[in-house]
Specification:
The protein is α+β, with helices and mostly antiparallel strands. The chain has helices at about 5-10, 30-40, 45-55, 75-80, 110-115, 135-145, 165-180, 215-220, and strands at about 15-25, 85-90, 95-100, 120-125, 150-155, 185-190, 235, 240, 250-255, 260-265, 265-270, 275-285, 285-290, 290-295, 295-300, 315, 325-335, 340, 345-350, 350-365, 370-375, 380, 385-395, 410, 420-425. The chain has eight helices and 25 strands.
Length: about 450
């Protein structure tokens, strides 16, 4: 039998970090990502040569590292990021999946997409401009999506003579704002993405700073795997019934564990029916195991022959989510067509898709000052607001604050399958804001 200690040891070897970058236009997000890839030796020779050639054609003496991520023709021509660019790289200490998100207001929905699975968000600020409206917007989106770690990268320090007071003032303002939203951890780092200061290598120009570089922080930030605090959830994706001579009575329920741990012998509840049973066996990659955890893809076998189908949710009998047909949530509208009160939609939650109707849109959020615009009647592209949805069938829905996987859903146009809205069930921001330590204007920045 696998003991909890052995399980913890196995999980501690997991070294994957998903993170996203965000910031205003021209704050240097793509340059930071390019510098990170280049200086960590994560760029292939032919990729670097292509960037060097493109830079020379544009009359630039040095390679424009932003071209490593801005891959669309429109992005390169305009010098901006339009879509989310995913990059995969690794160091000796950790593997990374990076989402470089756009900075324009009209691409807020793209940031929601990129940060929805991130465990860390890097928010860039131009040291010359300080915290601006879009900075606050991105901090608010990170808080809405419950991103547990936020890095404030104060970029272009070379253009303010690497002045410590400039950095300290920006860090103080941003930390106070993000902490008021309930962001649990905020780390401020002064950098110059163009020159490479404090990106991968420590800067010789900022000896007043004694904290980590961006890469060092990414390599060492803790990624939580405390499964005892997770609500175990298993959305059924497929029912396996071979009915062969070798397996005449085999019945298994296949899918990916969304959260937590499942063990053989554990009592479970199947939702939304509410029927109970016990886990008789767990099959993983052709072998029987006694324990499995998120995000493994497994097949569960139950002791009782009960009705279980795709879209059902298996959870521990003593820790099952509530069943509801009335969903209250914060949503980000991602489609060009508006979302209106009374609109009929499909709601997709994990592997379950049900018919639904938008009963109410109580408010739209103004992210620059976090004010609520009451009863807007509709949400248009990039709007974030509160909605009330009534579903035709019951859902086993967690609060997004408790589980990002089973607390999220999509609203879909039933006519053509277009994704309309990304939803997060429950309260908008953390109910108990965690405040950071204020910094005196006249004090030295303490690391």
């Amino acid at each position: 039998m696998t003991t909890p200690t052995q399980l913890a040891d196995q999980l501690s070897t997991t070294t994957l970090l998903r993170f996203a970058t965000a910031g205003s236009v021209d704050d240097g997000k793509s340059t930071l990502v390019g510098r990170l890839l280049h200086d960590s030796k994560s760029v292939l020779t032919d990729q670097l040569e292509a960037v060097q050639d493109a830079s020379r054609k544009r009359g630039q003496d040095a390679p424009d590292l932003a071209l490593l991520t801005d891959g669309l023709r429109a992005e390169r021509e305009q010098g901006i990021t339009i879509d989310v660019a995913y990059r995969y790289f690794a160091t000796t200490r950790r593997r990374f999946i990076l989402a470089d998100t756009p900075g324009h207001v009209q691409y807020t929905r793209n940031m929601v997409t990129g940060a929805s699975t991130a465990e860390l968000a890097v928010v860039l600020v131009d040291a010359r401009n300080g915290v601006v409206e879009q900075t606050r917007r991105h901090a608010a989106v990170a808080a809405l999506l419950r991103v547990p770690h936020v890095v404030l990268a104060v970029n272009k320090m070379d253009l303010v003579d690497y002045a410590e007071p400039v950095f300290a003032a920006i860090a103080k303002e941003f930390t106070a704002y993000a902490a008021s939203l309930g962001v649990p951890e905020i780390t401020a780092i002064p950098i110059s993405a163009l020159a490479g200061d404090n990106v991968v290598e420590p800067s010789a120009n900022m000896d007043w700073y004694g904290g980590p570089t961006v890469l060092e922080h990414l390599e060492t930030v803790p990624v939580s795997h405390d499964l005892t605090a997770c609500h175990a959830r298993f959305p059924v994706q497929y029912v396996i019934r071979p009915q062969t001579a070798e397996h005449p009575d085999y019945r298994g329920y296949a899918g990916q564990i969304a959260a937590g741990v499942f063990r053989v012998g554990e009592p479970v509840t199947v939702l939304p029916s509410g029927r109970t049973s016990t886990i008789a066996g767990i099959d993983l990659l052709g072998d029987s195991v006694d324990i499995a955890w998120a995000p493994q893809s497994v097949t569960l076998r139950l002791t009782d022959d009960i009705d279980v189908s795709r879209g059902d949710l298996i959870a521990p009998a003593g820790d099952a989510p509530a069943i509801t047909q009335d969903v209250e949530a914060t949503v980000c509208h991602v489609a060009d067509q508006p979302l209106t009160v009374g609109q009929r939609v499909l709601l997709k939650h994990t592997t379950r898709t049900v018919k639904a109707i938008v009963k109410d849109i109580p408010s739209r959020l103004t992210l620059d000052d976090l004010s609520q615009h009451p009863a807007p009647g509709q949400l248009i592209a990039n709007d974030i607001g509160r909605v009330v949805v009534r579903t035709a069938e019951p859902l086993a829905l967690d609060a997004y604050a408790d589980s990002r996987r089973t607390g999220s859903f999509l609203l879909i146009d039933p006519a053509d399958g277009t994704t309309l809205t990304a939803g997060m069930a429950g309260a908008s921001f953390a109910t108990v804001p965690q405040t950071g330590t204020p910094v005196d204007d006249d004090a030295e920045w303490d690391f």
